[in-house]
Design goal:
Helices cover 65% and strands 10% of the residues. It contains 22 helices and 12 strands. It has helices at residues 2-7, 16-50, 53-102, 105-111, 113-136, 140-155, 157-204, 206-211, 215-241, 243-268, 273-315, 376-381, 406-411, 427-431, 440-449, 453-458, 476-489, 506-519, 532-535, 555-561, 563-572, 575-578, and strands at residues 337-344, 353-360, 365-370, 391-396, 399-400, 413-416, 425-426, 466-467, 494-498, 524-528, 540-545, 548-553.
Length: 579
């Protein structure tokens, strides 16, 4: 646990001043606090006993002064703790977010979005709180315990044995309780991941849930997972709740013993009444300090569990690397894209693609068609290196894709994914994602080609129309057309449309294909679709079935030579339309 926390110490660089001043101020406050019982004893044994009001007032004024000084030191420490903790959290979040952005799709699929969100928020909040407690209490609490024991020994060493016995018993209780509660903390964070996953699924899919009347079933699933999290949290809470009453009982028993044996010493003149009061105060300080220590154990145990989860992400390395990247010059005579005996698997249930080979010339329009699960999206995801091929080689401009930096490679490819993703902001800001300096004419032309200009120009604010998160204030077809326009603005040499016209009606789809053929010029276009009408006019069509390339050719050639393609055509078109 300590090792996981220690690994994150690099994010505290730059806060040495706060890490030094904060604990020193708390230490000074603790020293002042340890002096208060001695002053109280002096007031009782001298001022009260001799009925010297002036002495009482002077000593009382000294106590007020020490309290004011203690408050000042505490405020400085609090300020230092806040600055260091918030700075640590900010640096850690930035570094973690930056690292997550370097991970490949395979690693992101493995961890999952809900877990990433929990680690970025809840786990880092736990670590921030631990840093604040480190500065505020880690030195103060143990020093108070040690100091109170030393002061008790100076007053009466025999009674101080009761203090040592009480401190040992309280430490034993701390160990027993914490050793049983530690395993629960990681389980709580993992179950929080599950609740976060269900929340995300249900909120994003609320329309589907209502359409199928699944509200009660989904509510039951959420209730079950939430109650599981609640039970685990309550279990660890019950164990932790034993700390305060058990330590309180031990400390109160020790106080009773101190008063019992101390009263006899007062009768014999060995001790004074004020000294007994001082000893009781020191025992109370030990009790309070030990309770703080117990809470610190809880805080750092949770922080250690969170640190383990955060370090797990930092230790996760991307499977897609840029070790051999040198951005070789394009070979004009080579195909713009080729795959040579490419196979790919996600790491479970065998290969998703088997021995795929083809090449594409510049300016060609390539259709990719196949049934659900045939590997269409997997195939095009290998081009921008979202994944690396398990076997074989993918080449762009005549060079393997791993020879290019990811930044350069992806700057050559305009990607329009299956799910139309827009971001909060205006339409203009979304269109300029790939080309920040795009002009009005470029954006308008892209919108016209994507068949989006008609509805965008009809909006009251036009390009400056604000979009909600995910573009939910637009229809599915409008979102798809805007994502196509966003890719067209950058005028990439390679344009990939991954079933990105599925929400368009046939007339708009046809107009889009016609505009792309007329406006894309030398651009190489990949059109992935399950619609025969979308791909039939492509220069060549790749037919996938079960992860295998079973046909390559034009529509007419494939109708005659590829049974799989012909079957797909007959399922969507009349026989005379197929021919």
């Amino acid at each position: 646990m300590v090792k996981d926390l220690f690994k994150l110490r690099r994010f505290l660089k730059g806060y040495l001043l706060q890490l030094t001043i904060g604990p020193l101020c708390k230490l000074t406050e603790a020293v002042l606090e340890l002096m208060i019982p001695l002053i109280t004893a002096d007031i009782i044994d001298t001022g009260v006993r001799q009925q010297d009001v002036g002495y009482i007032l002077s000593r009382g004024g000294l106590m007020v002064l020490m309290g004011a000084l203690g408050l000042g030191f505490a405020l400085v420490c609090q300020k230092s703790a806040s600055v260091a903790a918030q700075g640590f959290g900010t640096k850690l979040r930035n570094a973690l977010f930056r690292h997550i952005n370097t991970l490949s799709h395979a690693e992101l699929d493995k961890i999952g979005t809900p877990s990433l969100i929990t680690r970025m928020t809840s786990d880092i909040n736990q670590l921030q709180w631990a840093v604040a407690m480190l500065i505020r209490l880690v030195i103060r609490a143990p020093f108070l315990v040690t100091g109170a024991l030393v002061m008790a020994m100076l007053i009466e060493w025999r009674l101080s044995l009761l203090f040592f016995a009480a401190a040992a018993l309280i430490a034993l209780v701390l160990y027993l309780v914490m050793s049983r509660s530690v395993p629960f903390f990681r389980a709580v964070q993992q179950k929080l991941d599950r609740v976060s996953l269900l929340s995300r699924e249900m909120l994003s899919g609320s329309r589907v849930i209502r359409a199928f009347g699944r509200e009660e079933k989904e509510e039951e699933d959420f209730r079950r997972q939430n109650e599981d999290l609640s039970r685990t949290s309550i279990a660890v809470g019950r164990i932790s709740a034993l700390l305060s009453p058990m330590t309180f009982v031990i400390a109160q028993a020790a106080i009773i013993a101190v008063v019992w044996f101390g009263s006899g010493m007062v009768d014999t003149g060995t001790l004074k009444t004020g000294q007994i009061v001082a000893l009781v105060n020191y025992m109370t300080q030990i009790l309070l300090a030990m309770i703080v220590v117990s809470n610190l154990v809880v805080v750092f145990t949770r922080a250690a569990a969170s640190a383990g989860r955060v370090n797990e992400l930092f230790e996760l390395q991307p499977s897609v690397r840029e070790e051999n990247a040198c951005d070789p010059a394009p070979d004009p005579s080579a195909p713009i894209l080729s795959m040579q005996h490419v196979s790919f698997g996600y790491g479970h249930d065998g290969l998703a693609l088997h021995d795929i080979s083809f090449s594409v010339r510049r300016g060609e329009t390539i259709g990719i068609i196949g049934g659900t699960g045939s590997g269409k999206s997997t195939l095009i995801n290998l081009i921008p290196r979202f994944y690396d091929a398990t076997e074989g080689e993918v080449q762009v401009y005549g060079s393997p894709v791993d020879r290019f930096s990811l930044k350069f490679l992806r700057s050559q490819i305009g990607m329009v994914p299956q799910q139309a993703v827009l971001f909060r902001g205006t339409i203009r800001e979304n269109l300029r994602w790939c080309k920040p300096d795009a002009g009005e004419e470029e954006m308008q032309q892209a919108l016209k080609t994507a068949q989006a200009w008609d509805f965008v120009s009809a909006l009251p604010e036009g390009l400056d129309t604000p979009l909600s998160a995910g573009g939910k204030n637009l229809s599915g077809g409008q979102r798809q057309r805007l994502t196509i326009a966003r890719a067209l603005v950058m005028q990439p040499p390679i344009l990939i449309l991954d079933d990105s016209a599925s929400a368009l009606d046939f007339a708009t789809d046809a107009a889009l294909r016609k505009a792309l053929a007329a406006e894309t010029g030398e651009m190489t276009v990949f059109m992935v679709s399950q619609r025969v009408g979308t791909v039939r006019y492509a220069d060549r069509i790749l037919v996938l079935d079960g992860g295998e390339l079973v046909g390559v050719g034009s529509h007419r050639e494939l109708v005659r030579s590829c049974p799989v393609y012909r079957e797909i055509c007959l399922s969507q078109l009349r026989s005379e339309e197929v021919e």
